[in-house]
Amino acid sequence: MASACENDRMTHEQHHTAFETAYQAAQKSLREGGIPIGAALARDGLVIASGHNERVQNGDPIAHGEMSALRAAGRQKSYRDTTLYTTLAPCAMCTGTIIQFKIPRVVVGEGRTFGGEFELLRSRGVEVVVLDDPRCVDMMRTFQDNNPALWAEDIAEEDY
């Protein structure tokens, strides 16, 4: 994860803790019967909020992991000094929110099982760090294989 530490004051340990918070949130969603995507928002090395995909649990179509973490963070004067950690590449909706609030860096567990909007984020000046974490890849592949209709619903696809 050293590449995520470039150009900031956070240590490797702080990045590890923030990402682990996102990963544990994804695991919580999976245990609850939801979609296993978690996120955490950090500032100055401290996790200020975390959340997980709650579409199934709350019947909320926009409760993706990143959205849930930002909702948990509440109002912030600014997000320009934060890093958003997420277990999966952000979708268009979550990417729009990252851009809207000018979150400068997103650390992503994996983008193999869902490509997300990396290029849009980068084109808007967001630093994107992809960890290619095998736990995240395995978790999403297993979920997608076992729940194709639910996964299709989450990403607004009709065919599964």
What does this 3D model show about the protein?
The longest helix is centred in the first third of the chain and has 20 residues, at 12-31. The protein has seven helices and five strands; from the N terminus they run αββααβαβαβαα. It is of the alpha/beta class and 160 residues long. Helix content is 42%, strand content 16%.
Q: What labels would you give this structure?
A:
single chain; five-stranded mixed beta sheet; globular; alpha/beta; disordered N terminus; 160 residues
Number of strands: 5
Uncertain segments are: 1-8
Helix content: 40-55%
Sheet with most strands: 5 strands, mixed
Give the overall silhouette. Answer: globular
Structural class comes to alpha/beta
Rounded mean pLDDT is: 92
Give me the Rg, rounded.
Answer: 14 Å
Order of helices and strands: HEEHHEHEHEHH
Q: How many DSSP H or I helices?
A: 7
Q: Measure the end-to-end span.
A: 34 Å
Strand order of the largest sheet: 2-1-3-4-5
> What proportion strand?
15-25%
| Oligomer type | single chain
Element layout with pairings:
Blueprint: H1 12-31, E1 38-43, E2 46-52, H2 55-58, H3 65-73, E3 82-86, H4 92-100, E4 105-108, H5 118-123, E5 127-130, H6 134-146, H7 148-154
Parallel strand pairs: 3-4, 4-5
Antiparallel strand pairs: 1-2, 1-3
